[in-house]
């Protein structure tokens, strides 16, 4: 279907980095462009290709490198590198997750920042953090097993906050409301013990 019908455009605010080379966007040197074939948000380097698109009357349109190779029928000879743990696309894990939402995040004495947080079904003991819901690379991952959970906010914390601590490692999170906080805590309390929601359901059934 590539090039035969107009793609769904990923909105600019759904990504913080190029969906192809994973370089972060900035206002001066790396601005956002859309691939007219797949709708992904890419940087100028990754959108510097042109191909005739059927849905646009076979006119030449700016496309990303991947779509260019598919449309002109040339396969990329480079073997795809094995994806590192951080290089799992957010949309890929969010669509098949135990839980995902925006949370405020704070590490050590840094200021609070917004992060798209996901616990995928296939890795229900790992918390992935992204800059935005469509990012193609995680900013960080936290293997939850063995962490202690502290859900009582201190006066300096945001009201619906909780902490994960393990030796000297402390991660602070805050949800927008108490209901969302409790949903996250329900999943995290299981994960730190090495259990998943499915395990708990099986136990209840048995």
Automatic annotation (TrEMBL):
Keyword annotations from UniProtKB, A to Z: Cytoplasm, Cytoskeleton, Guanine-nucleotide releasing factor, Metal-binding, Phosphoprotein, Repeat, Zinc, Zinc-finger
The keyword Cytoplasm is annotated on this UniProt entry: yes
Organism whose genome encodes this protein: Corythaixoides concolor (Grey go-away-bird)
SMART domains the UniProt entry points to: FYVE, PH
Subcellular location: Cytoplasm, Cytoskeleton
Residue ranges of coiled coil: none
Family matches, as InterPro entries: FGD1-4_PH2, FYVE_RhoGEF_PH, PH-like_dom_sf, PH_domain, Znf_B-box, Znf_FYVE, Znf_FYVE-rel, Znf_RING/FYVE/PHD
Gene designation per UniProt: Fgd4_0
Record's GO cellular component terms: cytoplasm; cytoskeleton
Protein name per Swiss-Prot or TrEMBL: FGD4 protein
Pfam families in UniProt: FYVE, PH
Taxonomic path: Eukaryota, Metazoa, Chordata, Craniata, Vertebrata
Domain FYVE-type: 12-68
Domain B box-type span(s) in chain numbering: 13-63
Any GO BP annotation: cytoskeleton organization
Keyword Membrane attached: no
GO molecular-function term, one example from the UniProt record: guanyl-nucleotide exchange factor activity
Highest taxon of source: Eukaryota
PH domain span: 96-193
